[in-house]
Specification:
This protein is of the alpha+beta class. The chain has two helices and five strands; from the N terminus they run βββαββα. The strands form two sheets. It has a three-stranded antiparallel sheet, covered by helices on one side. A two-stranded antiparallel ribbon has the order 1-2. The chain is elongated, with a radius of gyration of 17 Å.
Length: 106
């Protein structure tokens, strides 16, 4: 039995598949713009649309299953990129390009 006095709330997949989880409100990561099972077609379409329509200087922060505060669900939010974020992305692209050139893909 939970020691918490909070009443769990029902969090439904925003992709429209009907899956849900019961979660205490204090455990939910509230800054997410989207939360869902991340496996259904609705979740995949929503993520693709958000990526395609994001403005310059904005990146998508993804939260894998369980890290969104809801077990079995993931989510994402859009954030303005800081100079540190841009530097991190540049390093990641350099590592990706170097590894691809080693296997002859670029």
């Amino acid at each position: 039995m939970s020691k918490s006095k909070e009443t769990p709330v029902r969090i439904e997949c925003m992709g429209g598949c009907g899956k849900y989880q019961m979660v205490r409100p204090s455990k939910l990561y509230r800054s997410l713009q989207f939360i869902g099972c991340m496996n259904c077609e609705g979740c995949r379409k929503a993520e693709a649309l958000a990526l395609a329509s994001r403005p310059e200087g904005v990146h998508m922060a993804r939260y894998i299953n369980g890290h969104a505060g809801v077990a079995g669900f993931g989510g994402w939010s859009m954030r303005l990129s800081t100079p540190e974020d841009e530097a991190s992305f540049a390093r990641a692209r350099a590592i990706r390009d170097a590894s691809l050139s080693m296997v002859g893909k670029r």
